[in-house]
Write a structure and sequence with these properties.
Largest sheet: 9 strands, mixed
Order of helices and strands: EEHEHEHEEHHEHEEEE
Structural class: alpha/beta
Shape: globular
Length: 216
Amino acid sequence: MRRIDDLQTHGLRFVQDTELFPFGTDSVELANFAAPPSKTRVCDLGAGTGILSVLLAGKFGCTVTAVELQEACCALLRENAALNGLPITVVHGRMQTFSGQFDAVVCNPPYAKAGSGAMRGTLPERLACFELEVTFDEVAAAAARLLSTGGKFYTVFPVTRLAEAMATLKAHRLEPKRLQILRPAPNKPPHIFLSECRKDGNEGLTVLPEKTVGEY
């Protein structure tokens, strides 16, 4: 089933298809955390149906290249770009082999390792949630390859994998510079974190105040 959602910002609308993985608040939080300057050349890795791409192009004025493995997601991403008249280039392919040069890279990657839990749901849901086609190490490697020195990488990931993620990012010359921990509700423990890294940056991490999802 298809529907068109009002994103309630900058007049943006977004087509959703229940056959594909729906976007969550984590992608919205990541777009607002990144908030790149207008005209920034951004690559959205594993873009899905395009929520990050649409928000970055429509809300912040970025020029976006979206890389996505699933053809059905690419088709809907193109539709969402056209619906909003946005400068989004859609690339159907694997991030591991995609090449280019960008000012910033964003990614909302799969959170769970393959084999770490019961893989229920449709194939698009499993690909979005589990590292079946790409690992976090491969995400970091792709981001580092696509960025020039000083370029920024933004991602969101579960707090249970925070130590692993920081080590992986540094191993790929992506120096963590800004970190924010999020909780799903005021009375709940933290569940995800947002991070900004700089390619070949100097050491020095700023930890922002913990906040609740949707709190501005």
